[in-house]
Amino acid sequence: MDSSLGEGKILLPRDIEELRFSRSGLSGSMADGFQMLNNARYVKKCNVYQEDEIECIIRLSSTEEQQSRGVPFESLEELSLYELPNFIGLYMWEGKAAVAPLLPGIFTQLTDLKIFGCNKIKKIIPWSLLQTLPNLQKLEVKYCKEIEEIIGDEDNDGSPVISSSAEITMPRLKILSLVNLPKLKSIYNGMMICDSIENIIIIFCTNLKKVAPLDGQPSSPPSLKNIHVCAREREWWESLEWEHPNANNFLQPFVKFW
Q1: Which residue blocks in the chain are alpha helix, DSSP H?
Q2: Which position among 41, 86, 104, 233 has the lowest Cβ density within 10 Å, counted as fewest Cβ atoms?
Q3: 107 phi and psi, to 5 degrees?
């Protein structure tokens, strides 16, 4: 379903499975503009293109208020965000929401997340949101000029301040693609267990010093097939820092220089 907002709020069919927004006038939170979005429980795919005013997908309020509206995106499997100049994150905390836990069910079925050309966002996944993404299989982030972290602590979205140094697990992540992120400094600052990872693509991310899904373990992840690196960035790859002294040796067979 393609949509153009116009004036007023739009009611969506409850059984709709796919949404596509392109220059439709979205602003603030995407969910705010659609009265029935929280009840559209069967949406599986959502694409958002060139929406100049959108800041987030969901604006979280208190748990009681959120429960009264229902759990949004409980069936969402694919989310693609393209060229959103004011987008700062998947969600924003509102009022006292930061002291309440996230509602179970938000994004729990998400398998594929793409964020391209969003030049205001600095962090993709706040630490507090990670627990709601157990099924994430593919994460692609490209051409985002201000990205500093993939998984990190709170910044200006009002989310809780939680230290991102604990060990985390992403049990189903298979593909991680990071392209042209000039300010990216960290994928994750702590230990990241990702035994399902198959392909990692890192191109033009030369401020990155460590590759968290590959670091800190005595051997390569069991499912790993390829590590793609730009041929012109061989020196960057060889300068990466590793916790395990033999990491560069056991990872080298998987590296493919493009």
Answers
A1: 63-69, 234-238, 247-251
A2: 104
A3: 65, 15
Tell me how far apart the alpha carbons of residues 61 and 70 are, in angstroms, rounded to a whole number. 12
154 by DSSP, 3-state: which? coil
Are 187 and 151 in contact by the 8 Å Cβ rule? The answer is yes
Strand partners, 81: 48, 115
106 with 58: CB under 8 angstroms?
yes
Cβ contacts of 9 within 8 Å, gap of 6 or more: 33, 34, 35
Q: Which of 175, 130, 173 minimizes the C-alpha distance to 149? A: 130
- Full pLDDT tens readout for the chain, 258 residues: 444 444 455 556 667 888 898 998 888 888 766 655 555 667 899 999 999 999 998 877 655 555 555 566 788 999 999 999 999 998 887 655 454 456 667 889 999 999 999 999 999 998 878 888 999 999 999 999 999 999 987 554 444 455 556 889 999 999 999 999 999 999 998 889 999 999 999 999 999 999 999 988 889 999 999 999 999 999 999 999 998 888 989 999 999 998
- Determine the topology of domain 2-257 in CATH: 3.80.10
pTM of the model: 0.88
Residue 116, judged by CB atoms within 10 A of its CB (0-12, 13-18, 19+), counts as: middle
